[in-house]
UniProtKB/TrEMBL annotation:
The keyword Nucleotide-binding applies. It is found in: Mitochondrion matrix. It comes from Durusdinium trenchii. Coiled coil: none annotated. Its EC number is 2.7.11.-. One of its GO terms (molecular function) is kinase activity. InterPro entries: AK/P_DHK_N_sf (IPR036784), BCKD/PDK (IPR039028), HATPase_C_sf (IPR036890). Belongs to the PDK/BCKDK protein kinase family. This is Protein-serine/threonine kinase. Its main location: mitochondrion.
Length: 266
């Protein structure tokens, strides 16, 4: 996909990513299917699954911002390109992670029967873990902590279930990542729009609710919402602090990587 962008070889970030992926696929093609060292293969799988970090995704996004300066590429084209590229990476990483999780321990894997899927993924505990992690990042970079409130409901039980677990079958790592990013957004937006005295009056609410078939999680804040003039740009990879070239985004993990708006009200 990278080679489909004219001038990609003139952009350092795309060159680096292209080189890493080319070497990886070359390794796969050279594997003899009749004589595979599973332990070595597992190590390579883990290395590749972790190779495209969020910092590299940030670089990819910045590279596409450079492409946006070329009149040949519209914002819609670059958004479509990033959609395809990142969905491909997520799918590939999911397969690689599943292989490693299912592989026997003697082959360097984790020998988990269900792989990366947990039949008892606890949404309540996971949301609290994500909030705790995002809180530590927030305190580290701002010295302040927003208030986080939890509501946990189950169909048929009218009252809030407080710390009652919410089990369902899901991939914990993916849900944890989503929650951390949402909460970092809310934390940063809340702190930007409130004085120290107002922070306690603007808590972030995490609502978890479920019935026999579905689990829903909502994150809401009082950070001011999205200006109406932003419109559909909120969903563009080319909108946000990193897309505007802010160096703060690469220096502060709380600031995010500019993939979409940083001050969205969930």
């Amino acid at each position: 996909m990278i080679e489909g962008l004219a001038g990609w070889d003139q952009i350092p970030e795309l060159n680096e990513l292209h080189s890493r992926m080319r070497n990886w696929y070359r390794y796969l093609r050279l594997i003899d299917p009749h004589c595979i060292d599973l332990k070595r293969f597992a190590l390579v799988v883990v290395h590749e699954a972790n190779s495209v970090s969020m910092r590299r995704i940030f670089k990819l996004q910045r590279a596409n911002s450079q492409c946006a300066d070329d009149e040949a590429y519209t914002d819609d084209f670059l958004d479509h390109f990033l959609d395809g590229f990142l969905l491909s990476r997520i799918g590939s990483n999911m397969l690689l992670d599943q292989y490693f999780a299912r592989a026997p321990k003697e082959a360097g894997g984790l020998a988990r029967k269900t792989g990366i899927i947990s039949p008892r993924c606890d949404a309540v505990a996971l949301c609290k873990q994500a909030a705790d992690y995002a809180s530590r990042i927030c305190q580290m970079h701002t010295g302040q902590l927003p208030v986080v409130l939890y509501d946990n409901y189950e169909a048929g039980k009218g009252a809030c279930q407080a710390d009652s677990p919410c089990y369902f079958s899901y991939i914990p790592g993916y849900l944890r990542y989503i929650m951390v990013e949402l909460l970092k957004n809310s934390f940063k937006a809340t702190l930007m729009g409130a004085t120290a005295a107002e922070i306690a009056e603007r808590p972030i609410h995490i609502l978890i609710c479920r019935d026999e078939c579905h689990v829903a999680i909502r994150v809401s804040d009082r950070a001011g919402g999205i200006p109406s003039h932003v419109g559909e740009r909120i969903w563009s990879y080319l909108y946000g602090a990193a897309a505007r070239g802010s160096d703060d985004c690469s220096a502060t993990p709380l600031s995010g990587y500019g993939v979409g708006c940083l001050t969205a009200n969930k």
